[in-house]
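Deviations from the work plan: none for this task. Representative record:
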Amino acid sequence: MGVSAPLLSAAGVIASVVAIMVDGRRAVAIAVVFLAAGLAPTAAAFGGAPGVAVLAGSAVASVLLAWIGWLSGRVLPWLSGLDPMIPAFAPPDRLFGPRSTRAFGAAVAILVASWVSFNVPVGQITVEQGLLFPIAYAWVCGAVRLVTARTVEDLAVGVAMVGIATATAWLLRNGNDALPGAAFACVVAPLAAFLAGWLNGRSSRRTQTRVEVEA
Amino acid sequence: MNPLVIAAGWLALGLVTSAFLRRPTARLVAIVPLAGAALTLFVARSTTAAVPLGGLSAISGLDRAGQGVLVAAGLSMVLVILLQPSVDPSMGRSIGVVGAAATITIASNSPLITGLVLAAAVATLVLRWVDQAPGKVSLAAGRAAGTGTAAILAASPLLPLTGFTTGERPVVVAALLATGVAALLAVYPLGGWAAGVIRTLRPIEIAPWLILLVPVVLLVAERIPGGVLGAGTPVFEHVLLVVGLGSAVWGGIWAVRGTDQTRYGRVFMADIALCVAAIEGPPVSPALTGALIILVTHLTLAPILLRPRDGVLVWPRRVAWALLSGVPPSPAFWGRLLLLEALAAGNVGSTIAAVIAMAAIFTASVMACAIRIRPLAPPGWRGRVADVAAWLLVAVGIAIGLAPQSLATFVFGH
């Protein structure tokens, strides 16, 4: 049975749009889970079961490490630090906020990813197939998330998106080093999730302490 | 000794010192770069230079130039820490991670491993910077430098280019690698973040980037066009030549216009931009030698010039600025002369831009020398030791100026 390129692209695009738009304390884990799910069909087509396992492992590890990081940040008593959710700067009020900018970036990313998909071959993929589209789109969305970041959480989401996209691109190489390379690239996402969880845990402990003192 | 072991040493010591040192013993953080430099002396030597344009491969050794850069940078970092008026012990973490990343970067043939370790280094620095000075400026470092490392990661599945030396693929790879290098070296238009952090943060905070990371990325950038980049080679070289020259001129102008507090950072950025432009220019030999002389000059003088201006080390600072001015026989003169020679082999436009940048750097150095500050007597034995160390560094700077080629050969084997 042949691979349906539009179906693979649709899954990747939906996952990338969710990942680029998601906000909140669990943003990194949500972005990684959606992106891994959206790129899993592409990974399955070229990396087989091991390819899907790499992405699934990364998603599970991200959720677990985000939770472990959050728990450790709350429990360890001698550390305090920055809140990854507080914007590092406050831009003046304007018509289009940060999410609008990201949505605009996601729209532009379609053009970039389309060009890459039809002109840049990776490994066994020939330029006519256009199967690089979902990966290129996820990567460009990750880069947009990085460039438009207002918080440390945004940076972590962007880095995780780039990691998952790069890992899937490694699966498309189809060489001896494809699977180890994908596994290496995937490491970025759980680490970013852990870091964001850790910072969230520390800042939530600090908030709780302040509330207790005020009470 | 394998570079991975050395990187593990940097990392372990950095984490241990940041966890256990307290304010009174904070200067012991200097153990991290000192041990890193010492371990690097015993590294397994590789006859070929590592270029991150291959597939996933094992890390086996370091070439002579890479070893020289790491040892010189480690020793420079030690002196930066020792000459600072105060040190935060948690700095050990950033120094350890960045030192480890620098070691692996210069030893790795794999763009994936290079991108990952550089991402770790950038993330560590950015978290620290945002923690120290939350704001647009520190976050911009994460945006720009983070995107740079993301670009290197994106290039990794497209490499090696064996069998794909023509067409769009090498051009896309070259554009991604040029973006990564420009962002990490803070070359305009991706360099605004460095100017911001230099203005906002204490000099010791930016030292791991400036001392440990920049020399390594510069050396890697010089090696990339020598690898298999096919049709991407001219793209990589021309992009970095143009943005490097523009950045050097811009950095030089701002070194003159800016405040005294940010002047050294601006001069450093302008010099690095000149080096980037020259080594990506025509393939002639003086460029690399000139860049290495400029690097060793900055690594020697940075410990003095990164100390906040506080009435201590006034005269060593003046002599250090004189050595950076480009007046013969200062080491900066020989370095910039070789860079100019390399650029002049290309076209007259490059030469004119480089001369403007060098004139601006000279003016900035003269302005820095001319600032009057009443010298304070060094407080106690610690101040006197700092004074002696600063004068020794100045002496090394003069020695480099008197025998630049020999010193570059001694340090880098080139």
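Residues 5-210 of chain A form one domain.
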